[in-house]
Amino acid sequence: MKFSSVASRLPREDFSLKDFGLVNLGTLLVAIGVYFFRLPNNFSTGGVTGIAIIFSSFIPVPKSAIVWFMNILLIFLGFFLVNGAFGIKTVYSSLLFSALLSLFEKLVPLAKPLTDQPFLELIYAMMIPALGSAILFNCRASTGGSDITAMILKKYLHTNIGRALMYVDSVVAISSIFVFNIQTGLYSIMGLIMKAFLVDSILESFNICKYFNIVTSQPDLVTEYVTKTLNRSATEVHGIGCFTHADRSILLVVLTRPQAIRLQLFLKQHDPGAFVTVLNTSNIIGKGFRDNM
Fold first, then answer.
1. Its pTM surpasses 0.90
2. Which domains does the chain have, with CATH numbers?
3. Among 33, 78, 141, 277, which is most exposed with the fewest C-beta within 10 angstroms?
4. pLDDT by residue (tens digit) across 218-259?
């Protein structure tokens, strides 16, 4: 199959200059965390790198070569089995990740871990790639690997992608107990658990916004500030106070964190009688936020 025909099967994606920069940054962070902290300690926390760590103990080849082979193999399997549903960003990030590992091996060869503190290195091995992965997921991309494996498992085993991904990564992490030793295996399992929480937490913090529910008797004053000063919109709902039976307007507003602070100060100064509830939310779809699901 020619590369041009393979590329033509990729779903069309908007790949703006901003996305390109973020995908490169996210992939670089993942590669740094994996190469400098995960690989030297044999932390097999799942994914293609975890498989590479396991296989490298049996096959005398660089770990980056195994990552190259696995990523390219999974990309082609993904095209044939799930019709390339992962998109051009994931393909690009997957290949860039493999290239960065090869580059690091040549420029900064590591014969042993950077320190003699495995738990400290486990923290960095999880935190840095988690930050990079969150940046990639926010751009609707990933470094491929086990994500593509999970898509294949979902199609043929009819299981949830998150559950399928956990199955794949758990098998890799548990295998390290038998391939290396109990300590390395336990660190790998702990790292897998940390990864599951870290990526979600960081991704949530990237997208966090504030949802305001404002019960006010001065809706025009508040909406003018929201639309003219903060350049946001609001939805007005008319209601009646159950205790006072007075007419009230309920304003529904979603703002970024800096805008939320400004609105709270404005309400405190100009509408102190307003009843305000503020909730954290991170999955906002619509104009001014995410364009789609």
1. no
2. 3-206 (no CATH), 208-281 (3.30.70.120)
3. 277
4. 899 999 999 999 989 898 999 888 887 788 889 999 998 889
